[in-house]
Amino acid sequence: MSTERTLAILKPDCIRKNLIGEVIRRIQEAGFIVRAIKMVRLNLREAEGFYEVHSARPFFGELTTFMSSGPCVPIVLEKNNAVADFRTLIGATNPAEANEGTIRRAFADSMGENIVHGSDSPENGRIEANYFFPEHEIVNHTL
Ligand code: ADP
Ligand code: MG
Q1: Which domains does the chain have, with CATH numbers?
Q2: Which residues neighbour ligand 2 (ion) by CB within 5 Å?
Q3: Each residue of 94-114: pLDDT tens digit?
């Protein structure tokens, strides 16, 4: 079986809206296995490091200020085709364009405050997971 990992982050708006449980429920219902999870408060420098690929974009300041504005919950998820399937589950970056039934469509307020992050490739999934979790904290348990 070819499983794949992706990094999800429940963003500060998700935590502020008391949606941690509801969003994780939807993620688990869709068949993702939680391999690592914690709550962190990123400082601005750490948020800038995570989103470095977007550093030239006009929204970089807004994005990193938002991501360091409150706690986040990074989660390493595993499933067949995890990267693509997770992006389908969360929906388009802009919640107004996200499909009915997606997490962003259901809960996000705007393009910037869109509830949840998902990696965009298996390689970035690994890199991003290791941004938050050393390999020994990603638990390879059997359910
Ligand atoms: P995604 O999170 O869907 O992969 P991107 O990688 O393009 O989207 O952008 C990263 C994050 O930056 C988005 O989730 C969103 O929070 C923010 N963002 C993207 N585009 C904009 C924008 N035009 N205005 C404000 N924030 C944005
Ligand atoms: Mg992205």
Answers
A1: 3-137 (3.30.70.141)
A2: 120
A3: 999 999 999 999 999 999 999
